[in-house]
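Quick start: read one record
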Amino acid sequence: MSSQFGHLFRISTFGESHGVGVGVVIDGCPPGFKLDIEAIQNELDRRKPGQSKIVTQRKESDQVEVLSGLSSDGLTLGTPIAMMVRNSDARSRDYDDMKDKYRPSHADFTYDEKYGLRAWEGGGRASARETIGRVAAGAVAKQILKEQFGVQILAWVERVKDISAQINPERVTLELIEANIVRCPDSATAEKMIALIEETRKAGDTVGGVIRGYCTGVPAGWGEPVFDKLEADLAKAMMSLPASKGFTIGSGFEGTYLTGHEHNDPFHADANKVVSTPTNYSGGIQGGITNGMPIDFEVAFKPVATIMHEQDTVNRDRENVKISGKGRHDPCVLPRAVPMVEAMTALVLVDHALRQRALRID
């Protein structure tokens, strides 16, 4: 099983949903960096279950423990940083009926086919609880990017089912995103989204939607053509998240409706010789390399697979049976996926920042 991500800044996540705990080992973090543990905890709090009425009600504190890699005064040593969060509210009995039955659209069947067995309690590694390690590592990456490179990463909920927000990304702040429980910086649209999610939850169903990511302060020159193009690494990062089903950057599929004349981003140099483009259909990346404009992308998330309705499925003996959803699950993954998207973005960008710094010294 591949549980590693990155090159110079490499992470390895570990643990299962209903095991002792979950966590991450970071290899390649530069030494001498003052790590803010509270900032790491804040990111985990944004991801944790039970934080509002529209997410799963599993009660976990998700308190981070830093096991290695720091000096006594909190400086990174350059050695592996291990972080762990212990599980405290797992209820495996909720999954008893799923031990021999495959939940529709879950990873139960495919894990069994690949490994010949699976951690059926809570979904094991396929559970979104695995992302705790990503978010913790992403919080470290965010700190490095902000302090050493001046990069800011934000993500927010742009659409839930058919309710879309019209948002000017240049005006979005973290405070606006965190101002409501659905994490949409448009308060009026957020109220409609929340109402839809609540209605869907009461009906025992789920909904999906779109998260938008927006990165500013990224200099031109990051990216490693031809196979590690920045947008290719971002796509891999986003598509590795649970429930993700699509990734677009810049104009995405909408750009296919335009001509080249309409779609091209003209270059302009100001009096200080700073190059920019008045439009950003490229989404901040051209030829797999950043061009200095904001990185602008979207990630599509499917409706959560667990629904509180009886469904057709098969068991391990290949018999046709029925199964009903049980346990505590998100009616919509989007609010908790926002910090996950930010974390994976940060992991990609910090890795490419370090690769570029190793390549070129100005």
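The chain has one domain: 4-359.
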